[in-house]
Amino acid sequence: MPEAHLVLFLIIAATIAGFAWGRLRYDVIAGLALLASVYSGIVPASAAFLGFGHPAVITVAAVLVISQGLQNGGIVGWLVRLLAPTRTSTSLQIAAGSGLTMLMSAVMNNVGALALMLPVTLRNAARARRPASLLLIPLSFASMLGGTITLIGTPPNLVVSGFRDEYVGQPFALFDFAAVGLAVSSVGLLYLSLIGWRMLPRHDASDFGTLFKNTLAPFLTEVRVPPASPFDGKQVREIEDLCDNEITIMAIIRQEGDRFYAPRGITRLRIGDELIVEGDPSVWEPLCDGRRLEPLRKDTHALKPLRSEHVVLANAVVMPNSQLEGQSVRGIRLHDNYGINLLALSRQRGPLRSRLKNVEFEVGDLLLLQGERKTLARVLDDLGCLTLSHRSAMSDGSRHSFWLSMLVFAVALAAVALDLVSAPIALVTAASVFILTRLISLQDAYNSVEWPIIVLLGALIPIGHAMTSTGAAGIIANSLIDIAGTLPLWAIVAIVMAVSMWLSDLIHNTPTAVLMAPVGASIAETLEVSVDPFLMAVAVGSASAYLTPIGHQSNTLVMGPGGYRFGDYTRVGMGLEAIILLVGVPMIMFVWPPVKTAFGP
Question: 262's torsion region: left (phi>0), alpha (psi -120 to 50) or beta?
């Protein structure tokens, strides 16, 4: 059998390739990597699932629940009012909106902070008559910058803190990241506000009138049910089934003036009904023979016939871990099961190569949907979509729930900062209080946990430990030291940070931290210096996925609404990553100097 570290290298290489490939979800790839490690003997079977009990996993789950509880409490309601006066200039608007996002993401989930601010930013952009494309990448990048400020700001910080506990017997404290994180995030925000936005395209892909015109109008027509038609009394779903669900009846207009928008599948047709039908003309035209249906006009190019007092159109983005991800309209039966219609879909990664009903949804897809006003927002929330229109930009939380949620969270942070209890205990306690005081329902608490992230962490942590036990981390560390030659310590710290950045851009910040933390610790052990600067470099580098839309969920989420291309991230991100290296490395060397030390607990 090959040496254990060679087998582990093969497993890690395959795992990184799987992450970069993107066809399988990252939690599935992590699970397969864990199984491969167990079957190959790299990870003992008895230790295979110990990662799920790791403090980092518990803390991430608790932070996700607390983030949702803070949203329910209305934490953003009074803050967003501060943004209205900042519309006077692009730089000021970015500094205010992205700065607020950065501060929130320091103490809550990055994607959660972004999701709160995305509708607000789009609304303010529209009122300022400013293209949203100038604002959304800075907003996404700010959500990641803010995560570097505290222990709970981003999963990589929790991962490296756990490794520090194993190597030196004590984890990082809540604000140990603050000095480096605040310096990096402050300079990064300054760059985004003054320089970065000028490299972005000027267009607004979140306008659903444009989205309608480009993707739906060519497939929309009006027909009528003529006298003696065999479709008299037939249900809507029967007509759609007759066309193999390749068409959708968007609206029914009765002779007496009644209108049914987004009609249910059980609605029955009548003689004289005028139908607005969406679908490929080659599918519905055979029905327009004058006996079953008769055409009225070729196309309808206005949105007005598709909405009413009770039926609205809404823009939404497919969020990470949405029920729609990987599903098609046909497969999930969006109309029959949920009472909403998909009118159009915009995806910036490339042109759609199949009919709308057959397209599988991806995270970041921008959707134009039609449904009943009273249920559409709730259904989209249940499906895991972020509504960008016809939605209040602020939570409806009461004043009482706002202050209660803030008090509970502040007490938990104080307990961690004063070292009264560990972060997992304090945050799980806060999450429990949120549930007991009904700041968040038990169902919402479970729904708020991003289970793929939990599986990812739990599956990869044993592999991270295996990098140490097999000697793989030491081999990589020695190779990096050999390459560095006689370079000073600050240069080696910079190399560790740069490699972590590169990996995070390709895969995901969490697995990058899991894989690079043992490497950083092994470098410190070889050089006989303290482990802290190298773990800090791993934490900052892992959280800095600014070159691609796939390195972090925040980047993916703004791709559709911003109408971005792959290169837009790279143009702005290269400068930001360079700034993070230039600011982060000196700050790490100053705050966490690599002093000579006896390595180990």
Answer: left
Q: Among 180, 134, 133, 120, which Cα is nearest to 153's? A: 180
Question: 159 to each of 156, 190, 507, how far by Cα in Å?
Answer: 5, 28, 16
If we measure between CA atoms, which residue out of 547, 481, 590 comes closest to residue 140?
547
pLDDT for 24-38, tens place per residue?
888 899 999 999 999
What is the C-alpha separation between 189 and 347, in angstroms, rounded? 28
Strands (DSSP E) found in 319-449? 341-346, 366-372, 385-387
Is the pLDDT at 72 greater than 60? The verdict is: yes
How far does Cα 591 stand from its chain's mean position?
Answer: 32
Instruction: Give the integer Cα–Cα distance in Å for 314 and 324.
Output: 16
Tokens of 449: 């946990």
Q: How far is CA 23 from the centre of its chain?
A: 17
Long-range contacts of 587-590 (CB under 8 A, 24+ apart): 587/179, 587/180, 587/183, 587/184, 588/180, 588/493, 588/533, 588/536, 588/537, 588/540, 589/489, 589/490, 589/493, 589/533
Q: Write down how long the chain is.
A: 601
**Model confidence pLDDT, tens digit, residues 391-441:** 444 444 556 677 888 899 999 999 998 889 999 999 999 999 999 998 898
Q: Which residues of 186-212 are buried (b: 16+ CB within 10 A; e: fewer)?
A: ebbbebbbeebbebbbeebbbbbeebb
CA 13 vs. chain centroid, Å, equals: 25
pTM score over 0.90: no
Task: Specify the DSSP class assigned to residue 187.
Answer: H
Say whether 454 sits in a helix, a strand or coil.
Answer: helix
Find the helix or strand (DSSP H, E) in which 252 lies: strand 247-253
HSE of 510 in the Cβ direction (CA atoms, 13 Å)?
25
In DSSP notation, 30-67 reads HHHHHHHHHHTTSS-GGGTTGGGGSHHHHHHHHHHHHH
| DSSP symbols for 543-570 | T---S-SSSSHHHHHHHHHHT--HHHHH
Residue 164 and residue 171 in contact, taking contact as beta carbons nearer than 8 Å: yes
Gap between the Cα atoms of 58 and 65, Å rounded:
11
Q: How far apart are CA 457 and CA 51, in angstroms?
A: 7
User: Which strands form 385-387's sheet, in the order they lie side by side?
Assistant: 341-346, 366-372, 311-318, 385-387
**Lookup: tokens for 460:** 């990869």
